[in-house]
Amino acid sequence: MGTADLIWMNGEFVAHEDAKVHVLTHGLHYGTGVFEGIRAYETDHGTGVFRHQEHLERLRRSAELYYMKLPYSTEELRSATHELIGRNGFKSCYIRPIAYRGHGPMGLDPLANPVEVAIAVWEWGAYLGEEGQRNGIRAKVSTWRRISPDSLIPHAKASGQYLNSVLAKIEAKHAGYEEAILLDPHGHVCEGTGENVFVIRDGAIYTPGHSNAILDGITRRSVVEIARDLGYEVVERHVARAELALADEVFLTGTAAELTPVRAIDDHEIGPPGEITRAIQATLDDALHGRDERYAHWLDLVAVPARA
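Request: output the structure for the sequence above.
Response:
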């Protein structure tokens, strides 16, 4: 992970080592924060931020669900991100905007605490490894269930909620797997620790829907559109746990993971990435890097050029 020189905090660009928060920050103690994961890619037309507007709109919606009013407009955050990328000289990078309740009254009522906003960028390779993207990863169905919509808000990308994913990730790593797949509260397939799940059987593609407590992944939406453009049938429905092992192909999608195939689940061999997975993965990669005109509108070109 390559760090940046500067981080944007509450309207100012500060040195990486000076980007600090108070130890009594509310978000540190109670998880009262929301964030986004976004990627920018080097293209022939400059640095392009993938589906930037959609990510920032989801950040705002997540904040609203937790009664946080962002003190900056979407356009202000977009402009700050562009300048931050340019000032740090990145041609491609990962982008992490985060809004959180800052230092103020301690206690479970957060409404008097200020909403702080920061944006960080850094160079980050394939989240589940380049080898995993090429040849697939091994995953484990977690004993931890995905958070229930009766208790928290799965549709919000909220900081504290990710303790659920942390537990599942550690369990999978300790068991010798690269990733975990969580079931929803009713025992249906939900998602990975930070990715949406797609299952391919008999030429059709199935993916859990919103009623399965998934996060509405922006890469997921993109892959659904790409798959349909390629002529594949995509169906949102409940996916039974056994269908993972019985699948012809399985893959995960997310901003960090992009599209990563799964070659084995719970030691049931699915096999190397299949034809459908490869076709969608190749088209997504072209879209991310500005090589497919059909998806050029997904890239928000950075107005401030990166340093040579």
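The chain has eight helices and 17 strands.
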